[in-house]
Structure to design on (227 residues):
């Protein structure tokens, strides 16, 4: 079976994180959400993790070459031998180019970039209604789409539900603007390479998942025919 090296692209609120987690289970591939693997590398104290920590401790942005180092560590891990799912990286053209160079060095190729598309209005609606459990931040609700049984209280552990700093209105506006300015150019970049696949992220999550499955199925059939 050929490798399945996927990148998930989409604005905040597109639901690509949910899809990433589902794909990880469905295809048994490691799912690398950049923020998480950066924190993990720091915790494990790997060489690049230590470098990343220096910047994070100062409150500075971790530079591209350090992030790509952290990601490269993971891609070379045994668990990623059959493929991987990247989410949150690359976020800029410079990062995309750095990733291309690294993949070439590793003699691997990106199979597809899956763009989960949602309108800005829909992204805003989704992000603004999000509530996160204070006891366990992986317990996430949405006041409209996935409401808790009791107002602002976690169904699982009774934790208080709060608005994450990331989900505050002024921060949401800024995150969407950053996406438009820095990340959206990647759509053309990957389209030119013929590996961009668009999925309508406004559909219910199960349908989005089905469409991604169909798309990956087609890619695999195409690859088998080439071999
Ligand atoms: Zn909870």
């Amino acid at each position: 079976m050929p490798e399945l090296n996927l990148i998930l692209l989409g604005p905040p609120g597109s639901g690509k994180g949910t899809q990433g987690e589902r794909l990880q289970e469905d295809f048994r591939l490691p799912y690398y959400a950049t923020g998480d693997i950066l924190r993990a590398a720091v915790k494990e104290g790997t060489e690049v993790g230590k470098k990343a920590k220096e910047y994070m401790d100062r409150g500075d942005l971790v530079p591209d070459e350090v992030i790509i180092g952290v990601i490269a560590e993971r891609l070379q891990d045994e668990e990623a031998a059959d493929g991987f799912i990247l989410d949150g990286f690359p976020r800029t053209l410079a990062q995309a180019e750095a990733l291309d160079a690294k993949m070439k060095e590793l003699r691997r190729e990106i199979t597809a970039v899956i763009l989960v598309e949602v309108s800005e209005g829909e992204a805003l609606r989704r992000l603004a209604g999000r509530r996160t459990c204070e006891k366990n931040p992986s317990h996430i609700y949405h006041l409209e789409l996935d409401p808790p049984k009791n107002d602002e209280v976690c169904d699982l552990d009774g934790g208080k539900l709060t608005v994450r700093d990331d989900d505050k209105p002024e921060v949401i506006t800024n995150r969407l603007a950053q996406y438009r300015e820095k990340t959206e150019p990647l759509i053309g970049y990957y389209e030119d390479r013929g590996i961009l696949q668009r999925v309508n992220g406004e559909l219910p999550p199960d349908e989005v998942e089905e469409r991604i499955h169909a798309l990956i199925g087609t890619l695999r059939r195409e690859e088998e025919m080439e071999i």
